[in-house]
Amino acid sequence: MKKSKKNSEAKPFLKWAGGKRQILDHITAAIAPALEREGRIPYAEPFVGSGAVLFEVLRRHPRKINKAYINDVNADLITTWRAVRDKPYDLLERLQFLKANYLAASQEKQKILFGEARERFNQRDNTDIDQAALLVFLNKTCFNGLYRVNSHNRFNVPHGRYKSPAIVDEESLLAASEILQEVEIMNSDYEAMLSGVKEEQHVVWYFDPPYRPLSKSSAFVSYASGAFDDHEQRRLKLFCDKLDQSGHQWVLSNSDPKNTNPEDTFFDDLYQDYQVKRISARRSINSKSTGRGKLSELIITNITN
């Protein structure tokens, strides 16, 4: 991909549960050997979320990646990614309008405006640009910047009380738009993504699936309707096997069950044929402050140094 000043300025335009900013160095270090051995190669990210890893990889290795593919099963999220890439100025115009109305309102009125925006978002009968603007607006004004939907795919996070929420970050959004011009954006199950890159060989993949819950209370976040349970974790492992057999290289991150149960070797057993590394990260096991602190997470890969 082209090296540009924008590569260093591009960063996530949404806050997303399970963001990878604090462990970026570990993830990029795991990916780096594949990039150092090859020439210019493609990069694929099937669970893109807010794109923290995508932007970091493109920032660090602009001349090593010739094409990037991103995907997420969340249709509203992908609509927003495409709006940022294809129509950033239209998106900024909508966001400026939402921002002006919101910041001019009283705190009581802001809560009403938030509720109205959430209802419009959940109707899902807006234009793509309006739907994307609503998602960004809700993300910046909801409680803790959380994206969560219920079993009916309705966004249900309550209003957050912020004095001056960063609803519009024009510089970052335009930087993201520029770097995304050479990125293909998909909305499918991750297995279907393989057909989208079938012409590519030796792709480097990074997987950030919904983490396996460490406790019942840590499983409250759902970014799409439908559960990613142990069956889904096993299905993902079989997909990684398929990639490995086809000559692709991959890195996967997930929670470490041993944080709460030293006898739980679910991932150690599942990925016993690959490298499983434990790293330190500050996370929250549950919604209570007593459940927060440094935990280990897993970096799993078929890439050898």
Oligomeric state of the chains in view: single chain
Structural class: alpha/beta
CATH topology of the largest domain: Rossmann fold
The CATH homologous superfamily name of the largest domain equals Vaccinia Virus protein VP39
Named at the architecture level, the CATH assignment of the largest domain is 3-Layer(aba) Sandwich
Ends apart, CA distance between termini: 24 Å
Indicate how many domains the architecture comprises: 2
Tally of alpha and pi helices: 11
Average pLDDT metric:
89
Largest sheet: 7 strands, mixed
* The CATH top-level class label of the largest domain: Alpha Beta
Placed side by side, the strands forming the largest sheet appear as 3-2-1-4-5-7-6
Low-confidence stretches: 285-291
Rg, nearest Å: 19 Å
Helix content: 40-55%
Instruction: Sum up the overall morphology in one term.
Output: globular
Order of helices and strands: HHEHEHHHHHEHEHEHEE
For the secondary structure, the number of strands is 7
Residues in β-strands, percent: 15-25%
Give keywords:
Adenine-specific Methyltransferase, domain 2, single chain, 7-stranded mixed β-sheet, 11 helices, globular, 41% helix, 305 residues, alpha/beta, Rossmann fold, 2 domains
